[in-house]
């Protein structure tokens, strides 16, 4: 069983998938940093607020003994929009990567046509003639 698992784990496709997964996770971190550090502040300038801080209060909280507000419930649509922008950027880059890989692949040449042999009629005529002999 251990031998079968080792063979399975060492297959080329599984290693490729693992490398792709790690690269994707690292790329997502780059995109998140780009969105949080560059895109969100620019959009925040347009809306004159911190983009990630955009939220709608659904329920107001109460003050506890320490003077802190507890029990607030917010609909954080700014965070959601930031994540949607992250997704769009990642999806677009993955589209470009797949398109580039497809362009780099060799154009498959059509298989040469099979050599033309005798037709069915010709074969039947040949069989008939050989039976006549």
UniProtKB/TrEMBL annotation:
<dbReference type="InterPro" id="IPR001185">
    <property type="entry name" value="MS_channel"/>
</dbReference>
<keyword id="KW-0407">Ion channel</keyword>
<comment type="subunit">
    <text>Homopentamer.</text>
</comment>
<dbReference type="GO" id="GO:0005886">
    <property type="term" value="C:plasma membrane"/>
</dbReference>
<dbReference type="InterPro" id="IPR036019">
    <property type="entry name" value="MscL_channel"/>
</dbReference>
<comment type="similarity">
    <text>Belongs to the MscL family.</text>
</comment>
<dbReference type="Pfam" id="PF01741">
    <property type="entry name" value="MscL"/>
</dbReference>
<feature type="transmembrane region" description="Helical">
    <location>
        <begin position="77"/>
        <end position="98"/>
    </location>
</feature>
<keyword id="KW-0406">Ion transport</keyword>
<comment type="function">
    <text>Channel that opens in response to stretch forces in the membrane lipid bilayer. May participate in the regulation of osmotic pressure changes within the cell.</text>
</comment>
<protein>
    <recommendedName>
        <fullName>Large-conductance mechanosensitive channel</fullName>
    </recommendedName>
</protein>
<keyword id="KW-0813">Transport</keyword>
<feature type="transmembrane region" description="Helical">
    <location>
        <begin position="21"/>
        <end position="47"/>
    </location>
</feature>
<keyword id="KW-1133">Transmembrane helix</keyword>
<keyword id="KW-0812">Transmembrane</keyword>
<dbReference type="GO" id="GO:0008381">
    <property type="term" value="F:mechanosensitive monoatomic ion channel activity"/>
</dbReference>
<keyword id="KW-0472">Membrane</keyword>
<keyword id="KW-1003">Cell membrane</keyword>
<dbReference type="InterPro" id="IPR037673">
    <property type="entry name" value="MSC/AndL"/>
</dbReference>
């Amino acid at each position: 069983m251990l031998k079968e698992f080792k063979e399975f784990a060492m297959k080329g496709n599984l290693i490729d998938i693992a490398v792709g997964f790690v690269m994707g996770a690292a790329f997502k971190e780059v995109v998140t940093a780009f969105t949080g550090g560059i895109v969100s502040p620019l959009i925040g300038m347009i809306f004159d607020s911190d983009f990630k801080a955009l939220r709608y209060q659904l329920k107001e909280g109460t003050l506890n003994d320490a003077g802190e507000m507890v029990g607030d419930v917010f609909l954080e649509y700014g965070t959601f929009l930031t994540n949607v922008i992250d997704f769009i950027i990642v999806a677009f880059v993955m589209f470009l990567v797949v398109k580039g890989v497809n362009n780099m692949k060799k154009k498959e040449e059509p298989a040469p046509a099979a050599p033309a042999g005798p037709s069915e009629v010709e074969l039947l005529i040949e069989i008939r003639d050989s039976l006549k002999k």
